[in-house]
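User: Sequence in, structure out. Go.
Assistant: Echoing your sequence, followed by the structure tokens.
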Amino acid sequence: MAPQTSIPVAANVLGTIGTVFWCVQLVPQIWHNWRAKKTEGLPALMMVLWAACAVPFGVYSVVQNFNVPIQIQPQVFGTLALVTWAQILIYESKWKTWKAIVVATGVFVLLGAIEAVLIVTLKGPYDRGVEWPMLVIGIIAAVLVGAGILPPYWEMWKRRGRVIGINWIFLSMDSAGALFSLFALIAQNTFDVLGGSVYIVVIILEGGIFASHIIWLFRTRKLRKRAKLQGVNFDDLPEARIYQDKRAEMTIQSYGSCDSRPCSAAVTLAADPGQLEKELAVPKPIYNPGYLSDMSETEFPKYLESGSLDIPTWDVEKGVFSTTDGAV
């Protein structure tokens, strides 16, 4: 595809709006990280891939002679991604601040040098009609920006669809920036399919993150209501901790693999909190781990709720399930 020879006013306006969003979209996330002093749930790989994608994305935009705002986008985008990555190194990986700054700055210089060399190297051949190198560059950009949004899906899977660590203002602004940038390409004299695919990938995958958390909110509505009635945070509710932690669920289910009946109320909570009330309606004996007297399932949740129950975990060295009170 030939480079753009003239840019319509509408394309420049839409591209400018998109650039404004993408110039500041990570600022709320950076501010959120700094205030909380933690980045749990925000994958470092996400920011590394986004910083890397700025190189092919920038090369593609400059050589294709897109409108100036869109040419600026990758540079700002990559810089903010590196700043966020440095925060993750400091708060999550516990790096020294100076070390994280030096490493992030070094990566910034390296990526900038690579982009400059590629622009100088590829612009001449592209102007002479050799298009396949730019096609490869565009594909790499699309793959990297899309791959950068995949790590949060792993974090969501670990938490049953819940999104933590990602600032919603940042995500909304990032999606809006991609949308306006896509409109800017549509408004140009000719639409660049490969360049537009980058924005389309961002819009679709980030939409999936929004959808995942909305579904989680719906599925945990009863647990969140229960936490509110008890005046505690969702994460402080014992039932919620069991529901959220897949490892806790697996531990309880494994714990119940013995011949005696497992703590089925806890298993029910972990598997489907919406079914708890039905299970509690029929009192049944439950497994006695040794330091509990036999009790019905109507009594067990009260004991669980009191916080005095230690969920057994598997001791690899001893080959037994154990609690803080000792082996079970």
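User: And one key feature?
Assistant: Strands lie at 313-315, 320-323, 326-327.
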